[in-house]
Amino acid sequence: MDDKARMKELVELLNRASRAYYAEDRELMSNLEYDALYDELLALEEKCGTVLSDSPTQKVGYESVDFLPKEKHASPMLSLGKTKSREELASWLGDHEGLLSWKEDGLTVVLTYRGGELEKCVTRGNGETGEVITPNARAFKNLPLRIPFSGELVVRGEAVIGYKDFEAINADIPEEGAKYKNPRNLCSGSVRQLDSAVTARRNVKVMIFNLVSAEGKDFDNSMEKQFLFLKELGFEVVEYERVNAANVEEAVARFEERIAGNDIPSDGLVLAYDDLAYAASLGRTAKFPRGAIAFKWADEMAETELLAMEWNTSRTGLINPVAIFAPVELEGTRVSRASVHNVSIIRQLQLGIGDRIKVYKANMIIPQIAENLSRSDGLPIPEHCPVCGGATRIEKDADSEVLRCLNEDCPAKQLQRFVHFAERDAMNIDGLSEATLEKLIAAGLIRGFADIYRLKDRREALLGLEGFKDKAADKLLAAVEKSRSTTLMRLLAAIGIPGVGVANARTIALHFDQELDGIRKAEKEELSAIDGVGEVMACDLYSFMRDAANISMLDELCAELEIRKEEVGAADERIGGKTFVVTGSLEHFENRNALKAVIEARGGKMAGSVSAKTECLINNDAASASSKNKTARSLGVKILTEEEFMKEYLE
Description:
Layout: H1 3-23, H2 31-48, E1 51-52, E2 70-72, E3 81-83, H3 86-93, E4 98-104, E5 107-114, E6 117-123, E7 129-131, H4 134-137, E8 144-146, E9 153-160, H5 163-171, H6 183-191, H7 196-201, E10 205-214, H8 223-233, E11 240-243, H9 248-257, E12 266-273, H10 276-281, E13 292-295, E14 301-313, E15 319-330, E16 333-339, H11 343-349, E17 356-362, E18 366-372, E19 392-397, E20 400-405, H12 415-422, H13 434-442, H14 449-452, H15 459-463, H16 470-483, E21 485-487, H17 488-494, H18 502-511, H19 516-521, H20 524-528, H21 534-546, H22 548-560, E22 562-564, E23 579-582, H23 592-601, E24 605-607, E25 614-618, H24 627-635, E26 638-640, H25 642-650
Parallel strand pairs: 3-13, 21-22, 23-24, 23-25, 25-26
Antiparallel strand pairs: 1-8, 2-7, 4-11, 4-12, 5-6, 5-9, 9-10, 12-13, 14-15, 14-17, 15-16, 17-18, 19-20
């Protein structure tokens, strides 16, 4: 076993032993054995000059940011030309040799190293401009943070989450509608998190597929030698085979045989010339480089019967058709639904209920209708929205015809209001995710906030929705019931009053002794006199409480709730009236909101940014170069870890 392979083995073994010891209260090895393996890993890292991001020799300080800055790529990141013909691959190669590799399905990133250290990671974005995600890249499971090469190195790779990790993450999500659809979507969201601790928990890996530049290095005009060089540096390079026109079809067949057992998602293969100069001489089209080509698997087809067309109203008011057909097996899974996207496609396919249709999975993932064999053309286009019953209209959208709900008050268009209502800081309804709410609204089960608390009377209708089984339905209904007992602070934060967030909701509720009637009857002058409210918020709150629709909404909602008074302790002189800011991940508190609740219960405030009025910045990585740390140092604001904060302010 070579040094790099041994390092990876040691990292995995030591991390597994640490998890068992600290999280599971069991030992996989003695302290003596652990220390010996740890010392061996340290020696190998020193010898090779490579350190993996998840090495136990590194103290990874996870970082949170307020937004992802954008950056223009030095050269455009183009897509590849595509073919589904194996014969075309041989013709494309001609007399040249090439490298055939997996085309992995994740999120493309560009990594830059200088002086042997990871300096920057940027997503592909739109090909011209991407998002800077360097803190998250430092949390990628297999990425070297330090390499034995001091010149500038730029590589491209695919950030991916394997099927095993994808299934494990989904297994922890009990409600079917909230589960992630596929590893690519999960990976894309994980890589672009604002908190790199989330990325770390998702076990994101990066597979390198292209060396853009390596300062001062010569690779004898060979792409394969570039790959071998990257492997020596500690990168995990995409798996490949060296091929020519005579054996490329056999190599494709070997890759195909291994799809079922391949843990990393793939949507095809990539064939690239090994001869770097020849590939560069071919140039590119407006869209594609000519030095590589993508091979897409031929789609497996199945014939079935169209049973129904389901119409779902989206938050934009578009009413999207979904075909329901007799279940068939495709690419190893059983499918019975496919999006038809818009009215134009319905008309092009001349669909009608009972038609014989052919279906497939685009890229082996997304079910689609390929062909209508019957073409009865008898499918009616709804004249009324399935959610609100309002009028619909067919409109032109670019080159397509779409169906739109014309009712601006349609509940489907108000999805984010319902999402906000169910959030942890508001009514805290566990499991009532955006995906679940979309289904409930589309099915007409929810039109107003009070309808959420009437779901218990519509359990059978709930069970009729896709993804809802007895256990998932009962868990959601239990969460809804639990949220019935709430506080006025949560209610005010949940119902969408302009400008009223968690902190202001608490201030307003306490001013009126946690009595809703007092708020509903208050005049603008009294509201604006509340500390922290101000004239604009007072006007918005006053108008909200006197709007006829809102009055009706509150009456219906309060009839379903038990609003209890929250116990409020006396202000703690160490915290009362002071402002605190937190950044980074937490260890002693479940999340930032839990810490916020402790501070506010003692009369303090939490802010999102550091200012001269900040009492202290709470950050477990006090040495980090985050913007909040820099601002705190420049203003002379003290930076404390959680433990230091707890000792100074809570003990």
